[in-house]
Amino acid sequence: MGIEDAGPGTVRPGGRTARVRASVLRAAGDALAEHGFAHLDLVDVARRAEVGKTTVYRRWGTVTGLVADLLLEMAEESLPRTETGSLLGDLKANARLVQRTLADPRQGALFKAVLAAATGEEKTAEALHRFYDTRVKEWAPCVQQAVDRGEIPQGTDAHEVIRAVSAPLYYRLLTSGDRLDEAAADRAAEAAVAAARAGAYLRGDDGHA
Amino acid sequence: MGIEDAGPGTVRPGGRTARVRASVLRAAGDALAEHGFAHLDLVDVARRAEVGKTTVYRRWGTVTGLVADLLLEMAEESLPRTETGSLLGDLKANARLVQRTLADPRQGALFKAVLAAATGEEKTAEALHRFYDTRVKEWAPCVQQAVDRGEIPQGTDAHEVIRAVSAPLYYRLLTSGDRLDEAAADRAAEAAVAAARAGAYLRGDDGHA
DNA sequence: CGATTAATGAAACTGGAGTCCCGTTATGGG
DNA sequence: CCCATAACGGGACTCCAGTTTCATTAATCG
Questions:
Q1: Does residue A109 sit at the B interface (CB-CB below 8 Å)?
Q2: The CATH number of the domain where A85 resides is what?
Q3: pLDDT tens, B155-174?
Q4: What are the C-alpha distances in Å from A25 to residues A75, A101, A119, A131, B175?
Q5: Count of structural domains, chain A
Q6: B193 lies in which domain range?
Q7: More confident residue, A14 or B196
Q8: Strand D closer than 7 A to residue A9 Cβ
Q9: How many of the other CB atoms lie within 10 Å of CB of A203?
Q10: Does A170 touch chain B (CB under 8 A)?
Q11: Is B198 within 8 Å of chain A by CB?
């Protein structure tokens, strides 16, 4: 009975506490990109961040807890969205952005590690879902504009179209050893547009015309 | 210099050795499905398999090594493929199969764990890639048949079409909390067919007609 | 069937991840 | 500017995953 929880960092979040968090999250990202999720150890993160290991254990506790907080920060920094005037152009821009991110050695390894961490730990999974919801929502407007222009049918689920662009890129990253190139990105965008035109992403409909 | 490696289990693979392997792999699958990759510990696997922990460490060494062997076995047991006479019918059957597998609590958790394990460990990743190559190759013929029937353009990359069906299902499994239902499976199949018809999966082509 | 030795398994051992204790630092409120 | 105390950090401690050793069991070959 009474107010409980409110872990460390919630009462005096300014100054040192904020610096420690930034330093630890940066170190965690580096370590994840280098060693992967499986071999991440909090003592190493503490060393890199030049912070006492007690602090890391007290504030984040586990590897998955730390990744969850890292995802919160990653969700905040949003990337600028371009507008090309056509759905295919916008989705290609999106696909290229995702492709470049996943193909980059550091970023690609980091995303793989974060996905692995979200597997199995509910709290981390929720943070990951919020991260992708944020990204999808940022890009959904370009699909709605395409509907308004008459490029694709009324009632198209904008979020589903955006997800359709990323899906094959992530699938390829995880299940094949092939490199993610621009051709793969363009193909993903083209496939999504073709499917959207055919009404495959109509909301609350199973696709039968 | 000379012949080296050839670890335990390669000289006398019959009888007990085979029984131990089967028992350990089954236990590993159970443990992965229950606790996830992050919390898997080989001592627990040894206990479940009723096998000395020394044996597990000697033959598989690490968690990722054990998962790699598990994937080799998973690749061998192939699922029967149905033939419905139309590309959409065949791909829907494939999509439903994947969807049922991933939606099943045990199987879904196991696949998540296996994907997580393949992240970061090259040897495990290779085993995973072989597993998916096997599955994709099993289903590719139905796409070729569709080409022969004239449903989709000549020069369509059959493997890419099959991957396009699974991709959105895996993407949803990993990046959202939403349940994988039949509607999602059907939508994946329909989108793949629409994109294939539009020529998005032409081999060695970036999609421009 | 018996000899050879590959493979297993019990037990003792070790190193380091994670915890605990308590003194030190510096934030935020008055 | 000063006080109360939130948050940090060093170091000792614990516990168990992973290793090593060696005796026991059983697969293969003649």
A1: yes
A2: 1.10.357.10
A3: 999 999 999 999 999 999 99
A4: 13, 19, 20, 16, 21
A5: 2
A6: 73-198
A7: B196
A8: yes
A9: 11
A10: yes
A11: yes
